[in-house]
């Protein structure tokens, strides 16, 4: 769709993690002598497919454990262009790099090399278990999906120059779980010096994490042992609810199919807690602690959120007013219940559950990404925060052949929903969805240009002579903890002194 842009599909960046390499750090891809036909995207990493889930619905597509492939879009293989490495979202249990909405042709046409990466998902990518830790020379287990991303970044460092990319100017970018990964990679000593800037959209790594010392609900080893015991229960009679830390029948995990492993994960509620684990190697401490101590990657960041992150993102909860008050008191403190209900009175008009969802989204996403920027700004690094309240038409993001999504209130009734910024960032409003207006296409040109400028120069603002399509780009002031400068992406684009100031100030007081 873009003259002069080449797409190189399905390049293996690691050995297929099959057999005894299941639940092992990725191994270097084997070299080949013959011409490699990079004309087909590799399969998505194994995940459930074919389900309806609001805008994130999936059709049926090829999945496999042999999935460690990346894709490259470039307009000039002889140039020395900035590189963006994209990590998709999907709760670390779903998604793939080669969705049409992530097509990198329109970004590559503007002077960057775009790399998209598949990485292991679900328990195949994030299972922590004491036996796996014993087998590791680092006494580590879990985080294989993060290790895949690090392997891809090593591949980019070593090879991207052959495709017109500058290995000394790499930006990692992700949304939702992808943003959580970007943040976690900033906290990981294993990823240090493999990237030079970071973009995080609607996610961070400042939340509850599985560890090996926490309570039974969050302890990664206990959760993994429960899952393993459930797999063992399919081959011999035992009580799978009791975690089994021994090596007994551990081989059953390797013999189990991905479908059986996922079913065991559902049976033991494994996906309900964090997939990422504080393992002592990939993540030596909680990311929040690493950032607070200034031990993270010292790179510029561009981070932000959208106005309606909570819409259908969290499972609907039927709360009455009394239960809402009790929940808020237990989670945030009884003395804050009345002030919170006063601030969220508009949501309370709809339902008590909407109040809880809105607070969770404001605290877990909007405030968290602002804090991410603050950590970097306090180190003197360029930091930029955005907030998108422009309302796009809601559609099935990942089913381009059938994007229609019937909402009772119409396609605009979801507001700026979680993931609604994706088509704009990739400048693909002409390629996916339906019901777009001219202002949507203009906003896509503006947002993608800001992002590309940041990847090139650690500053989203255009140079004195912007490209012709870089119009409508008001100044984006850098974030400072004293000003909370935030670029508001709406009908009118302008920098404001923070968004939802009273709500975020109270949540910040409660949480930090």
**Rg:** 22 Å
Shape: globular
For the largest beta sheet, what order do the strands appear in spatially?
A: 1-4-6-5-7-8-9-10-11-12
Beta strand %? 5-15%
Q: Give the overall pLDDT as a whole number.
A: 91
Number of helices: 16
Q: What percentage of residues falls in helices of 4 or more residues?
A: 25-40%
Largest sheet: 10 strands, mixed
Structural class by sheet pairing and helices:
alpha/beta
State the distance separating the first and last CA atoms: 48 Å
Q: Uncertain regions: pLDDT < 50 for 5+ in a row?
A: 236-243
Order of helices and strands: EEEEEHEHHHEHEHHHHEHHHHEHHEEH
The count of strands amounts to 12
Secondary structure: elements and pairs:
Blueprint: E1 6-12, E2 44-45, E3 63-64, E4 69-74, E5 81-87, H1 105-108, E6 113-117, H2 122-126, H3 130-135, H4 144-159, E7 165-175, H5 177-187, E8 197-201, H6 220-232, H7 251-255, H8 258-267, H9 287-292, E9 301-306, H10 321-332, H11 337-343, H12 345-350, H13 352-377, E10 383-388, H14 422-425, H15 438-457, E11 485-489, E12 494-497, H16 501-511
Parallel strand pairs: 2-3, 5-6, 5-7, 7-8, 8-9, 9-10, 10-11
Antiparallel strand pairs: 1-4, 4-6, 11-12
């Amino acid at each position: 769709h873009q003259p002069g842009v080449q797409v190189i599909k399905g390049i293996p960046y690691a050995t297929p993690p099959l057999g005894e390499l299941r639940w092992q750090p990725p191994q270097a891809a084997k070299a080949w002598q013959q011409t490699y036909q990079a004309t087909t995207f590799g399969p998505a990493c194994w995940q459930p497919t074919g389900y309806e889930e609001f805008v994130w619905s999936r059709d049926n597509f090829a999945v496999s454990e042999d999935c460690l492939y990346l894709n490259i879009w470039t307009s000039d293989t002889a140039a020395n262009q900035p590189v963006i490495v994209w990590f998709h979202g999907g709760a670390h249990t779903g998604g793939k790099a080669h969705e049409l909405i992530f097509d990198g042709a329109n970004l590559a046409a503007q002077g960057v090399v775009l790399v998209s990466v598949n990485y292991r998902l679900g328990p195949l990518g994030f299972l922590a278990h004491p036996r796996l830790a014993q087998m590791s020379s680092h006494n580590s287990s879990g985080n294989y999906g993060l290790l895949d991303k690090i392997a891809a970044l090593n591949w980019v460092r070593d090879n991207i120059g052959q495709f017109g990319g500058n290995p000394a100017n790499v930006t990692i970018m992700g949304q939702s779980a992808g943003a959580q990964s970007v943040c976690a990679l900033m906290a990981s000593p294993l990823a240090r010096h493999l990237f030079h800037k970071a973009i995080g959209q609607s996610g961070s790594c400042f939340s509850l994490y599985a560890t090996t010392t926490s309570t039974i609900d969050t302890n990664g080893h206990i959760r993994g042992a429960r899952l393993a015991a459930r797999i063992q229960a399919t081959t011999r009679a035992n009580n799978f609810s009791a975690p089994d830390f021994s090596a007994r029948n551990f081989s059953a995990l390797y013999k189990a199919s991905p479908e059986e492993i996922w079913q065991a994960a559902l049976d033991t509620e494994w996906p309900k807690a964090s997939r990422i684990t504080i393992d002592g190697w990939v993540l030596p401490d909680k990311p929040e602690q690493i950032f607070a101590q200034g031990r993270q990657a010292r790179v510029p960041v561009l981070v932000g959120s959208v106005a309606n992150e909570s819409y259908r993102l969290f499972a609907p909860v039927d709360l009455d007013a009394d239960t809402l008050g009790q929940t808020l008191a237990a989670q945030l403190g009884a003395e804050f219940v009345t002030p919170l209900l006063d601030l969220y009175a508009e949501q309370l008009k709809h339902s008590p559950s909407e109040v809880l969802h809105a607070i969770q989204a404001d605290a877990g996403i909007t405030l968290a990404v602002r804090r991410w920027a603050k950590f970097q700004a306090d180190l003197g690094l360029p930091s930029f925060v955005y907030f998108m309240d422009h309302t796009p038409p809601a559609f099935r993001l990942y089913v381009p052949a059938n994007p229609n999504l019937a909402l009772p209130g119409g396609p605009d009734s979801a507001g700026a929903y979680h993931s609604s910024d994706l088509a704009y960032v990739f400048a693909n409003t002409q390629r996916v969805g339906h019901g777009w207006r001219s202002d949507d296409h203009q906003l896509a040109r503006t947002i993608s240009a800001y992002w590309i400028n940041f990847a090139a120069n650690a500053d989203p603002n255009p140079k004195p002579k912007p490209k012709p399509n870089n119009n409508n780009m008001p100044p984006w002031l850098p974030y400072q903890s004293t000003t909370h400068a935030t670029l508001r992406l709406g009908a009118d684009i302008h920098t404001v002194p923070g968004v939802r100031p009273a709500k975020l100030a109270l949540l910040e007081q409660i949480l930090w």
